[in-house]
Amino acid sequence: MGLNFIDQLADIIVSPLGLAGIIIGLVVVYQAGRSRRLAWLLFTLCCFSASLGKFQSEFIKATPPLVFPLEQLRSVGRPLTIVLLALLLVLGLQKQYGWHRKLIAPPIKYLVLVQLVIFFKTLAYGSIGFAFLAFLTFGAVVLMFRFGPSRWLQDEHNFRLGVWSLAMVGVIFIVANIYQAVFNTYPIMFIHGRFSGTTANPQQAAALLGATIPCCMFFVESREQSLKVKLYWIIGLVLIMLGLFLTGSRTGVLMGLVSILFFYRRRGGIALRLGMSIAIILAVILPLISQDGLLLATDQTQITDRFTSINDSRSHVWLAMWNTFINNPFFGAPLRADRLGYGENSWLAAGANLGLLGFIPLVIFGLVCIKLTFSLNQLEKRKPAYSLQCDTVIAGLISLFVGSFFEAFLLGNLTFFLMSLLMYLSLGNYLIEVDYMQRKYLPRYRVFSMNRESNAFHN
Known about the structure:
Layout: H1 4-14, H2 16-32, H3 36-51, H4 70-75, H5 77-92, H6 106-125, H7 128-147, H8 149-152, H9 156-183, H10 186-189, H11 202-221, H12 227-246, H13 250-263, H14 268-289, E1 290-291, E2 294-295, E3 298-299, H15 300-308, H16 315-327, H17 346-382, H18 387-403, H19 416-458
Antiparallel strand pairs: 1-2, 2-3
Helix pairs in contact: 1-2, 1-5, 2-3, 2-5, 3-5, 3-9, 3-19, 5-7, 6-7, 6-17, 9-11, 9-19, 11-12, 11-13, 11-18, 13-18, 16-17, 17-18, 17-19, 18-19
């Protein structure tokens, strides 16, 4: 995240279009205070905006432009995300009532500690301005969750809307890129023939698609959805999986497979039927959109070769980060620029760049996340009625956890990966608190009710 986006933000705010957008945004915030679905939709738009980006490389100087209005949105992706984040904060600070009080999931606290280490190291050895900007941005995201989505989770309806908000990010992403593909596929497939869409690279596109799969499966399996609505979600799920394949990302595909495996870990028969259905649909769709061995104007062999290849593209990077960590165990390697740069592993990147000061809280974060998944698994055993909700959160968290071993996703401060991670943690924290409140207060209510009935009988 560069400092130049502040200038972009200022230019947008003072422009006629920006002023009109702010007025519209405030109207939306006012209406969202009355309509919870609109509030969750605003969160969806913030997540999608956070995913926008342009590919940057020393070999590719200019990124092919997208069609209107996608290019215009992508060019102001960071400032737009800041504006949406501010609107969500304004919405969240409005007075709200509810029983849900534990609004920050325990793992998030340790992620804040990691960002504090990043802040102090950048402040001491890098750009002071960037250090404050990055930490304030991360703090704004956490506060937005504290006063927004986490506090909105007060009942089953809002839980479903929270899942819906993440699923809709995947749907909007797919729709936006289908719209682009109608005009020209090259701008979304130019990186070695791999699908990057409106994100900065195929890895980020794969992370987005992989993170939304559990939420789509939630609605496919939900008994409250009509057959027609389920069909729409199945189509969306198929398109998301097709997009995941086109990214050529082994990490993304692994995230998707892990999420499906853990989502259906107790329902093998259903998983088999769903897998066969998706396979049949893909078998029908692929020949229709593929001509002369090309899929979306891209040679399919370039993508399939990535999945069948056994070439190791990461071990040398991991070994280098490990050696850096061993040589600089306390505070990590010295900065070589005005900010930290990370390799392809969140955990080793934390060790190499932050030393034990950043690595230890990140490991504790991971352990507390694992503890949360075990708690959700136990909750599912005790209360089968919560199985679908628990399966969704467990699948989402483990999928993101797997992705963190292949990319430095956990060290970002304004990304879709971070927002989806905080959303899954908030959903899981809500389920645990619901179970706690029911076990603490429901037996007392039952005893009180029985005493009233007994007194009425004797009288």
